[in-house]
Amino acid sequence: MSGMIRLIILALLIPVGLSGCSCSDQSNSADGEGAQQVLRRGNGAEPQTLDPARADDFHSFHILADVYEGLIASAADGSLIPGVAEDWDISDDGRTMRFTLREDARWSNGDAVVAGDFVRAIRRVVDPATGAPYGTLLEPIENFGAVRSGGAENSELGVQAIDERTLEIRLDQPTGHFMSILAMAVAYPIHSSVTADTLGDPDTFVGNGAYVLVARQTLGSIRLRRNEFYWDAENVSIPEIEFLPIEDETSEMNMYLAGELDITYTIPPASFGTLRQTISDEVRVAPRLAFYYMAFDLTQPPLDNPALRRALSMAADRRQLVEVIGRGEPPAYGFVPTGVANHVAAPYEWQSLSDDDRIARAREAYAQAGYSDENPLTLKLTYDAGSIHETIAVAVSGMWQDALGVEIELDKREFRWMLDIRDQRDEWDIMRFAWLGDYNDPMTFLEIFRSDSPQNLSRYANNDFDELLDQALVELDSARRLELLTEAEQLVLSGYPVAPMYYFVSKHLVSPNVGGFEDNSLDRHPSRFLTLDARD
After folding, report:
1. Residues pairing with 432 in the sheet
2. Which of 8, 356, 390, 417 is the least buried, fewest Cβ under 10 Å from its Cβ?
3. Boundaries of CATH 3.10.105.10 in the chain?
4. Measuring CA to CA, how many Å separate 452 from each of 110, 133, 358, 359, 374?
5. CATH code of the domain occupying 288-505
């Protein structure tokens, strides 16, 4: 896009309230003869951590996927491909996996990546002292429960280095989606020299991914440089990557239009239509396996009352909400997005009611919970900075007030501080959140409601639900597994621990100078597959 066209677009968008951002003080060094190419990516917010075991947010995962590599990796289109493992064998009963590591797999300091590096990392994740929020994803591994509870030593976990290049993982039961988990941060290896205190420190960083961490500013830029020891380094095109944690979506768009970003994290709702009309080739929208929801605190009054949670969920007009957002998101009446493999929808039974009937039933539930115009309810809705979250919080709180008379206190926080108060139950009543599918299966959306899941924000607890997931986890008959998962979704929906609002679509501005960016339902775009041409 020429500079003149960018100026015209900026002029068109001025009325929506543009603001500047000085997140980076460096110009794109792809310009100029002999200069170093740098791909600049918007990252939405600062990563909570660069410790693979403790990461549980997309802002961290973006960066970790560039600086580490698991046994399995994600391709440009989101499909699974060999990573550090060049080959593997799975036993006939599906319980024993043997991985052969690449002979040329290297850490960024030149050391060989060996099977023991995976053993060390997986044992660390399972160790309860680590506090790994995604640790339960490794539950299929033999003796996971005993080790996690302290009833067995870490050495008894079903992961073993047969020799330096052979890793064996034994499962309690066959698990169809386990290979997808091995591509995630929770299964990345850790170098023997690294400690919890040095993870994420550029001065001591050792990774095995296509890039290595070289600089990090607090609340600012994170710089990566191509890892010369990476086994496929000759096919990694871009020398440097810069991730910028820009929470304000309009500022991020400004930087993109000014030529200071190559890929944005998202697109501001108010500008979406104009951008799609003016630079449609640079607007990338695709269905995504994720849903946006309002989590209710079930641990204390008043939201421990299921009738109240049902009233609030029914009073939220999802169809109106997605029209306000205006970026193609479909309304959500369940937890598992349309298009997830091996899934039959189990939506709310009131989904097809007219608006009048839906509101009438919401008011009945509100009265059943003990509230009325004479005895109104006041709740705090906590959400993070960003125009989309502000828009949604204002819209939904207005719906609750108009339909039920609920008074809502809006509590805006920076993303990392919002994460910090998740377990401080006196700090919030309702919290906006989202869940991004880790693999293409209903289990990734239902497991977050397990009673012992660290991702269970509402603290929903139902033994019958847990048992259904346990049965589905080991069920080999695909039809029966589908029945179990559908029944589990119906059960958790009936408890109203959260109010799903909409299913995601990924939304990025991608420079025409960037190649290799492929839309995919998991919205994963490893930098190793991207290319960058000099700007016009």
Report:
1. 294
2. 356
3. 288-505
4. 40, 11, 33, 34, 39
5. 3.10.105.10
Task: Please state, as a whole number, how many other Cβ atoms lie within 10 Å of the Cβ of residue 135.
Answer: 22
Q: Residue 215 is inside which H or E element, if any?
A: strand 211-216
For the domain spanning 38-250+510-532, the CATH number is 3.40.190.10
Tell me: the pLDDT tens digits for 145-185? 999 988 999 999 999 999 999 999 999 988 888 999 999 99
Q: Are strands 407-413 and 159-163 parallel, antiparallel or unpaired?
A: unpaired
The two structure tokens encoding residue 132: 């790994």
Query: What pLDDT is recorded for position 23?
Result: 45
The predicted model scores a pTM of 0.78
The neighbouring-strand residues paired with 430 are 296, 381
CB 401 within 8 A of CB 268: no
Tell me: the pLDDT tens digits for 288-302?
Answer: 999 999 999 999 999
| 444 residue type, one letter | T
Q: Note the pLDDT of residue 22.
A: 39
Distance CA 444, CA 441 (A): 6
**Which CA distances in Å does 94 have to 86, 100, 149, 225, 366?**
19, 17, 25, 39, 49
Cα–Cα nearest to 354, from 392, 314, 323, 396: 314
